Amino acid sequence: MSLQYFTVFDPERVGPGSENLVGGLLLYHEFGGADRGSSTLNEKLSRVGVVQGIWTLADTFVPDGVPSETERCVELGREVILTVRFEGHYFMCLSVQLDDAAEAVPHQFYMSQLWLSYKFFCLQFGRFDEVDMLVPRLNEHFVPFWNDIFWNPETLIRRGLELLWPNGVKMAEFDTQESGATEDVCWDSVILKDVILNETSYLGIKDLLVYHLPQGPQYDPQSYGLVRNFSTDLEDLADVSNWVYHLLATYGEISSHVLAGNAHYKEKPSEEHDCHTSTPPNSTQQESVMNSLSSYSNKFLHNLSLPVTFAYDAMQEMGATTGISNSMSLLSTYVPSWRSATESGPDSRDHSRYGFLISPLYSSALPMNYKVKQLNLNFQNDKHGRRKYNTLFWYYENILIVIVCDPTFEKIWDAEYLKDLGYTLSRSTQRLHDTVLKPNKACERKQAKFTYTVVEKSQYYQTVKSSIPSYGTKLPAKYKSALELAVNGDWFSNTDTSNWGFDKMGDIFHTNRDQERRNQTTAQQLDRNFLQLMPRDKLWELQLEILHFLDSLKRSRRLPAFTEERLLTLNNGVLCYIREEEFRLVIIVKNWFDMNINELKSQNSSRSSLFESLGKDVVAWWENLST
Amino acid sequence: MASSNGNFPDVRSLRSVKSSQTLKVANQGLKLGSKGAASPTLSVNLGNTIGDTSLLPTGNDDSQYEDNSGGSLPRILSIGNLSVMDNSLRSLSSAKRYGTASNSISREITRDTATSGPAPIIQNDADVYGTNTPLNTTPFDRNTDVGGAPENLIDMLAESIYSYAPSMINGKSAGAKRPYVSNEIPNVFSVTERDVIDQDSNSALNKQDKNFLIISYAGKPIYAMHGRDEQVVSFSGIINTIVSYFQVNNEDSIKTITSTNTGQKFAFLNKDPIILMAYSTRGETTSELLDQLDFLYSYLLSSVTERQLHKLFSRRSNFDLRTFLEHTDFENLNDLCLQITNRLYPDLLLNALQSNPLRKSVRAKIHDAILNQLSGDSDLIPRGTLLYGLLLSTRQSKLTAVVRPRGHTLHTTDLQLLFCLVRRHMESGSASKEFWIPVCFPKFNSTGFLYAYIRFLSPEDKSAMVLISAQKDAFFKLKLFGDRLWERLVSDKLTTYIVPRGGGSARCGFRVRDIPAPLVHHFVYKSRRFVQYVMPEVDYNVSGNNPFLDESESSGDPEGVVEYQRKLQSYYQQLHDSVVYDDGDPINKSMLSFVKWSCHGASVEVVGLAWVTPQFELYLLCNDGVRGKEVALRSARRVVSWCRKHEARLFIHDGAVF
């Protein structure tokens, strides 16, 4: 599948007369550039017109009293046109060309991505009706967003099934019994006490969103996601979370540049960037790993149009029509002000990596996006309603914290305060890291014989708990934290012993590579469930099958009061259970080849329901989850 | 009137013969079937009471406990000892909510057990149970059992359909009925309220959950299932524009428009110069809707051949096909649409035909009789005159026997169209006539007509003989051959198998309780090899009456029967959808899918099962209240085993091949 064109239009802006038709066309972007040729204005207008016709036709069949439709999918023989309607009168339309490739992405993924692109726009700029100079903003946001996907379609499937719920937040789950922390030393109580309720930042820091984002061998689908946030009335939690996940899925890392919106693909990433093909590292391969890392980093710099040289980026424009400037010239004058955390961290023996990714600690010469990221958010209990909040990003190993600050909170511009804040966060997250996320502890855990996804509706969004690994989560041989690009960067030395280097921002940092290697080794044993051992293509097949099961369930005509359960047994060993209730969806996947005789015997009880027949381990898990 | 010399000037004249100038020939063969015929082997009508269903197979311990019926005295007494009070309230509330006939069941039991007349059937059943007397009148061997033994007798008994307190059995007390599991199937789907085609009123089209539109490439409406002409015309323009746009600009055809939240699906079938569109919110797959459209298109072709169609539109692209079609065509289209949308019609869903169960030897005799007659009358109908011969019952669209040339078979769609055609003629009150109808079988040859001689054998049973020829003047030859064939079948005493004694009230199929599979409400079994399916007779529970009346007996409540059929169709559609992709391909070669619908507040639990293998497909519904997966699976295994064991009876293998 490949993208053909993307368009945004608003029929209400079409004036009388055919010459004013173009007024309704807010954005029209064709992918592939000159290679594919471009359409004339008439062709563009006719495409938009026929989509409008389709909506008109379908709307007339919608019964009275039923809320108007927001998304429609038009399937042709070799093309799918996905359309969504939002804010009552705006339409987005994405055309995708079908192909017969085995790994063709189902259009449901594109549809979710379409919604996400809108939600991310709202995060950055606000709702369409509220944005001044809408057209340039649309160009600035949507064109690079979809171009990234065009150049790197794997973005769509890296998140796996969780992408199917664009209103959902993937939650991280941990075995609480392993935390070993008592209430008084609990990691989140530190944040609550010393950050949220601290008299300096009280009401200034509105919320902290704590994410656990392990990548590579440490990837664990169960513990991946939002660990927790601290306010209960943040309506846009799902959008912020999905934005973070999207960045990670798109670029493989979250760096300052990525967060600031200055990283985009300009060409198809080469195979060496393919994070799934490499073999696990070992000590004898160190040299090649270093070489590949260097090459990889260089390529990445290029692909992300990172401004290492002024000449490269200063002239890079997305084109006159897009109005996008990705100029990064000021970076050449950058002098880092933030020191590596390893030198000042609370426990330098661990050499853990932490620090700010977006903060005012950066040079004043940098664009504002590097200092604070402004996001349009709405706290239900805030009298000001939806408005721009300053957000800072801080990380510790695989943990990312988004700090949402009130726009009037001036303390964030105080370097000392930020250092204190960083220190407090490091204390807390280290505790989280050591007690809950300790890799060695996780290794001891028994490999689960089933995987699950549970989607529950909450007040503002859906929560997604899942242990089904996403497609393409096996990262490359060289394990890298997803959050260390900003300080990891190019190595100046290829020696095994050197623990010093320059980060992407020019800062000198220190790391303990031996520790890193140890992590790699242990992390390989972190396959928490049987699906993580599955080959990539088989995992993809399984995900497609689950998608079809869900699609079929979605078509069910049952009355809303009824619960529908399905238990599907395929001859390839897949045992899939799906239950849909009014506010909850449960998916459980097992391999029935692996079920032992006792389990099968327990299935044979004539009294056992569909769910109980999945085995005692599943029932025990469910009871635990319910309590 | 068709001339005896067989000179039909053109197709138009043929069409007039079909619709209005039917051949009136005295039907002399109709009465012969009931004289001196042997007892119908396939009749399993053992009465209308619960008691008769409790006849248990001998030598099969499992079946004694798991039989789907529920009336033998020992069983009732056993159940009487169980405490199932808690469940009674649940079932009663369920019955109330869904309008089930559980009260009627109660009355029926009371009446049967209290009667002082001739030996009550329950007593007979007890005798049967006690003495292990084999059931001779049942056509099928009921000793089939492939499932495992029940692990707990009490559990299994408690899962019987009806569990009654002892006081109920003795008839001395009007104690509460306490069914643990009800053989009623509640409706868990949203359904259309009316079973009519609305082409006259001004009611908005958006009130319909399903609609079919056929328009020409010029945007002229040809047919709409719902909606007046004025309403349809405006849509025709938009549909035509949309379809043409993609055809011209993208060199592609639009297949579907799907709305996620409202569940709307529009499916398009572009058959230049005709465009067909289906609209539905019932959750069908794209493949299902396209099959339905193809079925309607095939009907159009059966009436106007493809060649004729292109010719008409090539002369004038804005030709109004409605002026060419006849009133009966629109009636037939209405009938087909109703059949597709509001009836139990697995034929399209499974792309298979239903065959009439007959003993292998009986069916072989029928086929032999046809072949012998054919060879004996070779002077009357030289080779090539008869293409296909069919004996069929249109009551449930069942095929009884087929004669065909070697190496040629009729496509399922063609046969389905033929069934509909015959049924329409039967229902239009023409059952005493014979017909000579030109009909195009689009899957056989979409460019030309074949000619069908249709002779109705029994208006009650709606059975008919159809002889198909490629020669348009072969009517009298085929009629004579048909007469002689019928006489031979009478003389061979085979007609009772084709037209069961007792007409419509006699059963020519089987009931679900004839199969030793416990707690099964209904099922559909398809043999992939023979592209045929079987299902038990539909037992519709007429509200307030005997729940075991069959369809014909419950004709006093046609609305109820239709609603029940629609309900079953919805269940089967959902079960089928659970094992196929949107394009109709199976998700896996072998697959087992359990589906359970439940409503905690209403105490409803319906378990269905879809089992697909390279050999067969089984779709099965358990009775309300069955919650165990294993119960469903065990029953499914028994159904499969039973069907495979009786494969020779249930399906037509090759037919009579000449």
- Which class do the helix and strand fractions of chain A yield? alpha+beta
CATH homology group of the largest domain in chain B: Dynein light chain 2a, cytoplasmic
Number of helices of chain A: 17
Beta fraction of the residues of chain B?
15-25%
Annotation field: number of helices of chain B: 20
Estimate percent helicity of chain A: 25-40%
Mean pLDDT score of chain A, rounded? Answer: 75
Query: Can you list the strand order of the major beta sheet of chain A?
Result: 6-14-13-19-18-17
| Helix content estimate of chain B | 25-40%
Tell me the domain tally of chain B.
Answer: 4
Number of strands of chain A: 19
Query: For this structure, what is the CATH class of the largest domain in chain B?
Result: Alpha Beta
Oligomer: heterodimer
Strand content of chain A: 15-25%
Q: Which consecutive residue ranges of chain A, at least 5 long each, have pLDDT under 50?
A: 272-350, 473-513, 520-525
Shape of chain B: globular
